[in-house]
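Researcher: We're teaching a course module on how sequence relates to structure. For the next exercise, students receive a sequence and then see the predicted structure as tokens, so they can try to spot secondary structure elements on their own. Here is the exercise chain.
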Amino acid sequence: MQAMNPLTCSRRQPRRCAKPVVAALALVLAACNQQGQTVTDGLPTDGYRSAYPIAVTEAPQTLDIPVGTGTGGLSPDLKAVIADFGADAARNATGPVVVMTPAGSINQAAADYVARQIRTVLRQSGVAATYLRNQTYAVADPRIPAPIRLGFTRIKAVSPPCGRWTSDAMPDNQKGTDGAEFGCSTQANLAAMVENPNDLLMPRAETPVHGWQRWEMLQKASKGSSPSATYPTSTF
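Model: And here is the predicted structure for the students to work with:
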């Protein structure tokens, strides 16, 4: 008698075909499962993102203002830098803005005078007077002019420091792993460049479509023309 193909069963013999078909399907699924496991196990792990994760946390933002012993005031360039710092603090500060002046340094008198100008620029930049704090800090060497330090805390994206150098910088081709420093600078640059750290946690909400743009697209669609935008091509 001719052997029956388990995958081509006839309607006249359903019972004889049921068991071979089930067995064949089980073998196919088992083979697919084994192949899937092999592919999954061979995928590379997300090494550098796990080794140097970016964290969104509260961190200090500081700015040092150099002050000489004979400094009589802020230069226009320093005023612009402090104004930008103050505008950033007015938008993103999670606490007070601190103006720290050196105590016991050779330039203490000049620093105290410049600090008053700095507080004026910060208030003009949007920092409320109630959020300004004045502090002093001890200097290591009183013979060296010390800077004025401005600071506030904000939500920032930070990454672990680079420079572990526990192994070679090149990837280990034999083990299939990256080097100890691989990806560290990329993560650090991404954390420093991101404007809104919350973008790393969740997408921004969609903004409404402009009314005039919606009306123009509807007019094109009603006339049967394409609503897509056209861009002129320039020739040189």
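Model: If you want an answer key for the exercise: The first strand starts at residue 55 and ends at 65. The helical segments are 14-42, 47-51, 76-92, 108-124, 184-193, 211-222.
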